[in-house]
Every structure is written in structure tokens, then in C-alpha cells.
Amino acid sequence: RKRVEIYQYIVLKWTLALLIGLLTGFVGFFNNIAVENIAGFKLLLTSNLMLHQKHFQAFAVFAGSNMILATCAAALCAFIAPAAAGSGIPEVKAYLNGVDAHSILAPSTLFVKIFGSIFGVSAGFVVGKEGPMVHTGSCIANLLGQGGSRKYHLTWKCLRYFKNDRDRRDLITCGAAAGVAAAFRAPVGGVLFALEEAASWWRSALLWRTFFTTAVVAVVLRTLIQVCRSDICGLFGQGGLIMFDVNSTIPAYNTPDLLAVILIGVLGGLLGSLYNYLVDKVLRTYTIINEYAHSPLPDFYQSIWKGPAFKILLVITISLLTSCCAYGLPWFAQCIPCPTGSEEKCPTQGHAGNYKIFQCQPGHYNDLASLFLNTNDDAIRNLFSSKNINEFRISSLVIFFIGIYSLGIITYGIAVPSGLFIPVILAGSSYGRLVGRLLGSLSSGLDVGLFSLLGAASFLGGTMRMTVSLCVILLELTDNLLMLPLMMLVLLISKSVADSFNKGVYDQIVKMKGLPYMESHAEPYMRHLVAGDVCSGPLITFSSVEKVGNILHALQMTRHNGFPVIDEPPFVDAPELCGLVLRSHLLVLLKGKKFTKNRELFGSEILRIFHAFDFAKAGSGKGLKVEDLELSEEEMEMYVDLHPITNASPYTVVETMSLAKAAVLFRELGLRHLCVVPKTPGRPPIVGILTRHDFMPEHVLGLYPQFISHNYS
Amino acid sequence: RKRVEIYQYIVLKWTLALLIGLLTGFVGFFNNIAVENIAGFKLLLTSNLMLHQKHFQAFAVFAGSNMILATCAAALCAFIAPAAAGSGIPEVKAYLNGVDAHSILAPSTLFVKIFGSIFGVSAGFVVGKEGPMVHTGSCIANLLGQGGSRKYHLTWKCLRYFKNDRDRRDLITCGAAAGVAAAFRAPVGGVLFALEEAASWWRSALLWRTFFTTAVVAVVLRTLIQVCRSDICGLFGQGGLIMFDVNSTIPAYNTPDLLAVILIGVLGGLLGSLYNYLVDKVLRTYTIINEYAHSPLPDFYQSIWKGPAFKILLVITISLLTSCCAYGLPWFAQCIPCPTGSEEKCPTQGHAGNYKIFQCQPGHYNDLASLFLNTNDDAIRNLFSSKNINEFRISSLVIFFIGIYSLGIITYGIAVPSGLFIPVILAGSSYGRLVGRLLGSLSSGLDVGLFSLLGAASFLGGTMRMTVSLCVILLELTDNLLMLPLMMLVLLISKSVADSFNKGVYDQIVKMKGLPYMESHAEPYMRHLVAGDVCSGPLITFSSVEKVGNILHALQMTRHNGFPVIDEPPFVDAPELCGLVLRSHLLVLLKGKKFTKNRELFGSEILRIFHAFDFAKAGSGKGLKVEDLELSEEEMEMYVDLHPITNASPYTVVETMSLAKAAVLFRELGLRHLCVVPKTPGRPPIVGILTRHDFMPEHVLGLYPQFISHNYS
Fold this sequence. Notes:
The first copy, chain A, is mainly α and 713 residues long. In chain A, 56% of the residues lie in helices and 5% in strands.
């Protein structure tokens, strides 16, 4: 490349990082304002009706508005972009691992993710907007990297530099980090999240770029919040961007406290792995329901409608259930007299606040309503607060924990964008506070607010199995660095405990969705196999100057993305491996129709008519298709020289190389095709091609079922 | 491996991480106590003499004790372990990149690093104990991983699992992280430092393990500090473990503040790259002086003595110069009346404190003496303090900055363990405070303490070129999360500015020391070369059943570490590559003396007499040497079967593969040898072996000098 192109590339790289940060910051803020206003209005209406003793109307308004919002979210998801349902973090993780699943990062997904998330969270579901923010950030990054959507004629020429896997992956890593940063106002946490959970390949340069992106997000959020101080953002209040206010006194702890903390860690591990197990079961059930709804209908019109209709019905059911819990359960709680001498208003009248009056007399509050009839952010803030130790009774905490734990499990998997962070933090902090209340007599230094923070940490560690990034995110959320050692301890314990039962929730979902995720370590049984053992199928190879008809036939017959090219005698003495040619490049070449009558080398002519960027990787689902080619009978008989588009130095392994080593090579270098060459001379110069699917346990164990029972380790 | 061995391995892995954390924490604390007590006693003595107007005696005591301490440190370094001089971070970085330099992590280095660092810092040099702590942590990890030193008969059998490159590298990464955590009380910062600066390969599992190690360090330090609260640690006071107390009010800033911050960033970048440039020049000068001292002496006795003697002389010179600056420069400062209404005592009498009386009347203090005649930690704390804006006059800050900047440059490279963090933070925070004072009228929200923190950040970014880890370390040091966005901005600017001039200081030192460090990206000119172009030298290959004499001869004649093994006709039809055999394995095999008279396969018998762990990688400098072998004439004529020790699936590349791609493969997989195989059949089955040195720019550009001028990019 020329010098000026390098500069263009660098400037563009940083400009894109800046744009990703700016846009993600704006979207994150917009999300928050929208949710706060919609949910705030809903809650205000409900509590006003409650004040006038109109209990049934209040419930009708509450449940009705929840249901309308939920239906909106579900309709968006079901009809426009089914890929937008769920957290989105597993999909982003799989994409960064190299899985090019269609529509994961499409513009329609972005649109639905933003608005679906707003409606879903406002509808009072036990879901968060944090996972969807990560997905949103990645979608924004993808969209910018493609220079907008080609569908809507928004391409941008300079962006040709980013039409390759590596640069696109880098951008999307930045986007994921920006998403976390925007969701939690945690710039360092965002970088660490991208590093620990999202990215499969990491370079030092990327650390710096993601850091820049998240810094931009932090600045944007800060500026916007300052703008909002002047009451122009409607009901947007304290709850807007989560920043929990934990007691800022220095935590002093002694041995009983440490034991309590260890107890919380173990509990978090157990509850977390149970949560993962149940989420997996529920998700499988939902999938079966949806598939059943899809499958047996002969009528085309019906089958289109029935699938989405089932999904929406499921969402409405869960919405009703959630409304019933949120409105019904507080009736079981007795009214508590307001604490005297508190700085806060009690009971509160507005849409937020710690002390909800609900059905109580003036001067009293309903503690369970303060948790249930609030936005999730406010509920978490209440649980973390440490001003009034007896604010929540033990029975209320138990009811809330059970309610949230169950609702969280059945809510994930319905057709709305649903993050897992908030339900997990809610459940975790409620049992943390519970433990704090129960052991309050033993403990001296730690108060209930800190206990609930530790509970949240332990449950997060138990479900998501991240450590460093969770720790930093929680620190940035609560702005209390002195909790660090305790938080680390809790996270380590809960992760260790949970790891002995099952895998992290995101890994589970990736696996359940059948995405071919390459683990960073090779499976133990792979050490007993060699690369040649798993190469499958009849190999289709091309000669370096190949007949057009043969190529077209091969492209039509198979769905392979890479074909080996072999130099054959007139041009060389003996057949030898020339390299690897990609399907997409073949399609571009055939489209160009630069053929010759005879079998001869004319690569230089071909190079003249194509520009290097013609072969750049197209956006997802936007490349040429084999159906787009129109070739005459005469052209089919002609020859084309594949040398110019052949990657002449593909990575190769010898067929006797251990499969484990080949897997490490494949994974570490982020390959898509790995050529297997024969060990002994005198055979065809290539034995096969290994792709991602050949390394998947299902494939390998399908070929060699004896390894299933052996329990190799 | 068997199941029980896996468990042993896991338990051991975590036990070692725990031990590394514990030991590093203890050593870090011990270092601090020792320095605080020695330096405190020295300063107390000096200030007492000053109080009695005995100025010359005071100087004599001050300079004399400095010189004695400096001589001790230099003597330790020069005679026992020259590798302990300097920061140690570049060496650790090179080791983690795969450079097996002898003695970098030896037990003697550990000893000298600890005590040399204590003496050096106590001697009042402008050096830090942070870099040496990183090296100390890595040495501890290495020592534990080897199960103690074999020299002192402290090996431990279970540790055989860790006798390979990967596990050892993991341990040392943990050690480096623990070192940072112990030096700065920054557990998260330690993990990020290991990730961003130290390690060349990173796995997600490692993140968790380093995190555990640094958490242990944090807990140990916390416990020990609490123990010390009860005044049993002598003069160990506030200054012991750095934890700077920056103004904890929420920083509010506006546009002029932002401009000032950008100015600091740019300034930091410029000053930082100049610092790197000058440090490099000074280091090269010192190396020339030392080499000159070594070379021309015919007398053996003299040449042993002269080298170290020169080094010690240099240390004494610098020590005198430092003492003169520290004691002399404060005389230029005028006395300032003590501020009224301050909570702190003024002037202070003891060894620490903000307001040194020096030569002044009671009720006055000398601001320059508060900076110079203090431990470095206390000086930094003074600079960061924001209680009294006018505590330091502009002229004093200018003098201090110039003094520290120059002393820092000439001090690094002398024969004492010398960290770079503290000098850089000192210089950075002084010009940061200076900028804060000068722009004080414009600025509204930020006070001088925050400005000096930002100055320190910018200068750190400009010299060391880390971003995320520095940011987190500074946050953990100052315990003020709200500074994050400004800190990020400053770091990004200063790193960008400085990067356009030269490389980071650690990279520079690695390069200057001639360590073959593999960069993570391939050089641009490598794209124009193929793997076959740089394979050098006549290749020595062994037949798979080889004559003992030939092997011994090859081992004696060359210093290669890997030899290709070729299966040859009686055993196969045509010569083919069998694999790669390592020098160390060959030595063990020859030592075993399991030979046969005839050329035949008897690998299974060989396997019977050896245990797998006989071939495990020995500790640094402790493997068998070729001189240790004693073979008779008769044995030399016998044959040995190399199959059992041959790595039968080495990574290979075809000779026509682009050198850039081969470099990526080599680096990403952390290889030591890469076999180059021919493209066309009918030639010998291996063309050459690529090692780390073959990828070094010096080697490649030596072979193809035309690429030097081309300025490829």
C-alpha cells in the first residue's frame, strides 16, 4: 500500500472509533430517557390511582400499559428482526469468534434492538437494557464499518479498507466495549468486558482503541447528563443512568464478616449454576413451542403468521404474569411506619423514591412495593442503599428474591430484547441484603448495602463467570474502590463453585443456538486423532487454469467457501498445490467474464481489469450469489486462469499432525480454511480442507463415537 | 494424563498462584518498611542537625549515608547479579516473549533485586521501587515454579508439571502482576499491566489466575498495614505504601479546563519522548564506559575488578550529585510563612510532613525542601495534595521539575535496581501542578492537586505508552474514580503525541539490550519475502536412526537447539520429514546410552527406560551440557533411534509462503522452531528451520539491504 493510503486508513480507523463512541453514547442515553419517561409515566399514573383508592383501575392501567408495551416489543421482534430477541451478547461473542451468522448485526436488528429494548424494559419485564446495549453497540460498529447499509444506498468509498474480517472484527469489539460503557457508565469495565468475554482474538493495539471508544462514550454521557440537569428531559431523574450510591464509608471487616462473605460467594455459585440450568431448560422448551408452532402447517400464510403469533402470545402471557406479581405481591406486605429523622421523603408520591405508600396510611410505606412497583434501576438503588438498615423486612426480601429469580428465568428467551445483567443483579442484591440482615448481629463493620452489593457480585459471578470485568464494572457503578478485595473474593468463590456444575450462561446459549464456536483450547480426545482423520467428503479441486463450466458446476453443487487450486502439468512438472481460492472471489471473477478459448496463462490481463477492492469482503448477506451469474453455453466451454485470485500461501498442516495442534493453529490464527497436505510424496498434493465445522465436537464425535464414552480428560 | 494427575496439576497451579501472591505481598511490605525506616532515620538525623544550625554536619551526614547506601546497592549489583540493575520490566517482558536469557530470573537476581532496591531507594536516588517489584514478583514466581533452586537442593517433585514453557510463562505473568499489585496496592492495575505491557500471549484463563494472585497480594498488604497501625513498624508511616490522597470532591470542569488538560497531554507527550530519547543516549554512553573499562586489560585480576569498580564509581558520582541537588537547591528557595488555619502541623519536625522548616525561622517553611528532602513517596503526596493551593511557589516547582527530570535521566542505567515509575510521576506531577498554578486564574473547577495528578498521568503515558493499565493504576492509587474521563483523555493525547517521535521506554531498552523480541505484527518488508529467503546456514539433519558419533559431533559443532529428523530408505520408500528433535532431549538420550550396534528401530525399548519427565525442560542454565557426556569410541560407532524423542508433528510452512505470514504463525503460536518444507516434490524433505533470530530485522535487513532504503510501510 502507498503511504497516503496508510494515513487514510489510520485516520479512518480512529474516526470510526470516535463515531462508534459518539453514536453508542447517544443511543444509550436516548434509551435511558425513553425508558425513564415511559415507565415513569406509567408508574405515576398507577400510584395516583392508588392514592385515590382506585385499586382495580390502578391494576388495569398498570397491567394494560405493560401489555401494550410488551406487545409492541414482541411485534417488532417477531416480524422485523427475530435475531434481536434475547441478550445479544452470545451472538456478538460468536461473531467475534468468526461465526458469520446472517442478520446478527443487520440494520434491521439494530432498529429492533433499540426500540424493542425500550418497550421491553418499560413494560416492566424483569429484563435489563445492558445486554441489548452491547448488541446495539456492535450493530452500530458494523453499520459504520460497512459505511451504512447498501440496501439503502449509503455506502462510502473510503471504507473499502475495512472490508476484511480482521478490521471488521476490531470495529465490532470496539462497539461491544462501547455498549457496556454506555450501559453502565463504566469505561474501563467496558474494555475489560470486551477483552474477557466478547473477543476471541486480542491485540495490544485493540486495547488502546477500545479504550478510546469507551472514553468517548463516557464523555458523551457526562455531557448529556449535565444538559439534563436543567429538567428538560421529562421524568428522567436519578435512575436514568445507573450509578448506585453505596455507603462511602471505609468498610472495616473482621473474621465473622469474612465468613459471611464466603457464604455469599458459595450461595451465589450454587444459585447461579441453578439459574443457568433452569434458563437452559426454559429456553429449550420455548424453542420446542416455537418450532411446533412453525412446523405442521401446510398453509403458507398460516405458517408465517402462526410462528410470530405464538411468540407474541407467549410475551403477553409473561407480561400478565409479571404485572400480577408486581402489583399483587406487595399486598402481602404489611405497612411499615416511616423512619423518623430520615433525609428522604417518606412516603414518596412521585414515580421514584425509596418509600412507596401503596395501600398504606399516610406516614407508612410498603417495602415490597418499593421494590416491585419501581423501575429495575430504582429497585437496585433501593437495595444497595444503606441509610436505613431495617428499610426492608426479611419476609419482603424473601418474597422479592423468589419472585425475581423465577420471573428472570421465564422471561429470558421470550421474543423481546432482554438483558441478563439487571435480573441477576436484582436477585443477587436481594439475597445479599437478606444475608446481611440475618447475620446482622454477628457482623460489625459491613452494613446491609455492602452486603447486597456483594450478593449482586456473587450472583453475577455465578451466572456469567466473568471476574475482572464484573469486578471493575461493579466498582465503577458503585464508585467505591475500597470494596475491591471483598468483591474479588466473592467473585472468585462464586465462579469456582459454579464452574464445577456447568458452563457460563452465555456459553450455554451459544451452544444451544448451535453456533460453531471455537473454544480456545483443544478437546482432550483430539490428541488421539490426526488432522487427516476428520477431513470429510469428496474434495473438489480446481486446476489452476480451469474450465468455466466446471467451476460453475462446483459452485452450484456445493456450499463450500474455499477450494484448493492445483498446478498441473503443462505448466509444472508434477501436480503441486498452488493455493486456495474463495467462493466469493470466484464469483467476482466469473462475473467479470474474462475467459480464453485455450488453456493458457493470462493472469496479468485479468489483474488489469479488476481492482483489488472488487474482491473485498461484502457486507453480511450482500455478496454475489451463484444465481446472479449468467453464462452462455459458449462461455462455459472456455477457460479462466485462477492464479490472480488464488491465495498462494495458505496455512497448511501435514495429515499426520495431531488434531489438537491443528485446532490450536486454526483457532489462534483465526483461520477459516486449513489445507491438509499429504506426508508422503507421490500422492495428490492435497488431502483435504479443515473448516470450523470439522473441529466441532459433534462432528468429531460423530465420526469417532468411541471417544464419547472414554471420558478423556 | 490420568485423572488424578489433572487434579494434582490444577491444585498445584492455584497453590502456586496463592504462594506467589503471599510472598510478593510480604516482600513488597518488607521493602516498604525497610525503606521507610532507613530513609526516615537518615532524614530525621539530618533535620535534627539542621535545627541546631549545624548545616555542614547535616550535609555530611546526609551525603555520607546516601553514599554508603548507594555503595552497598552498587556492590551487590556489580558483584553478585549484574542482571538486577535497572528496572527489570524490559527483561520480564522479553522473557514472556520467549527470550530465554540466562540469569534474568535467577535466585541471586532476586536477592540483589530486593536488597539493592531497598538500599538504592533509601539512598535518595531518583528511582522507584515499582519496576524492581515487578521483577521481584517474576523472580519469586520462577523460583516457586522450579520448586526452589536446584543449586541449593530445594527441588520438589510435584513441580515437574511446570517444567515447560507455557506453564512457566503463566506463572511469571502472575508474578509480574503481583509485583505491580504489591508496589501500588493496585490489584486490577496489576492484572492490566501484565496484560498490556508484560505478556505476549494471553488466554482468558490467565486473566482469572492473575486476578486471584493480585487479590491475595491486596489482602496480605491490607492485613499487614493493619498490624502496623499499632506502631510496631518503627518509622513506617503514611508514606509506606503509596496511596495518594487526592481531593475527593467531584471535579467539575469546563472548556478552559479541558484546554488546560489537553495542553498537559501534549506537554506530557513531548517531554516523555524527549525523556526516552535522552535515557537511551545516556544508557548507550554508560554501556560504552563500562565496556571500555572491561576491554583493554590484559591482566585477568584487573579486568574482573575494573568493570565492577567502574560501575561503583559511577554510582558514587551520581549519589554525590543527587545529594548536592537535594541539599543544595532548597537554599535557593525563600522561606514562606506557614498558612494559618491549616490542620497540619507547620513547620513539621519529624521525618515526614508537608512543611519542612529547613533553614527557616519558626513559623516559616521551605517549600523546595519539602520536596527534595523527603522520600519520593512523600514528595509525590505533597505534590498531589490540594489543601493549600499556594503551598509551592512557581519558582520552586520549576527548579524541582528541572532537577528531577535531569536526575531521573542520568540515574537510570547505573548499577542499582531502579524503577522508572517514581521519577516519572515526580516530574510529571511537578509540571502538572505548575500548569495548574499558571492557569489557575482561568480554571474554575480543577484544583492544583488534580492538575498534578493529570500531569503525572500525561508524563507516564508519554514515556511508558501504556494506557488502560496506567489509568487504572492511577485510579487505584488516588482512589478517585471521577477523574477517569480526564485521565483517559490525557493518556490518549500524550501517548499519541509521543508515539509519533519514538517508541516506549521499555521497548527501547529491550532493543538496546539486543534481546530478540518478536513484535506482534510483521514488518512491512516481510511481505515481499518468502520463508525460504531467510533460512540461513547449512542445515544439519539427522536420520531417524542415527550414528551416535554424528549426533555428538553436530551438538559440539553448532549451538542449534532444534534439528530436523528425516526418515530414510530402509525404513520408508523415499526420504520424508519425520519431525523435529530438541538439543536438550538429545543430550538426555545420549546420557542414557541406550544404543544398538546395527541400524534398526528399537524405540519402544528406549521409552521403557526413560520417564516422560526426564525430558522436561530444566530450570534456566541447569540443563545437561554437551561437555557432560562421556562416550567411548565404541559407543560413537553405534546407532540410536531418535523416534521416541522426535516431535512428529512440528508446525511447517511451505518455502514459498510469505515471510509475513510465517512470522504471524511463529509469533501467535509462540514457537521456537518452524520447519520450512519444499514446494515441489523430489527434493530433500526439508529446506530449513526458522528460529526467532531469523525474523529479527537486523538479520533480514542484513540479507536484503535493499529494503532498508525503500522505507516500506
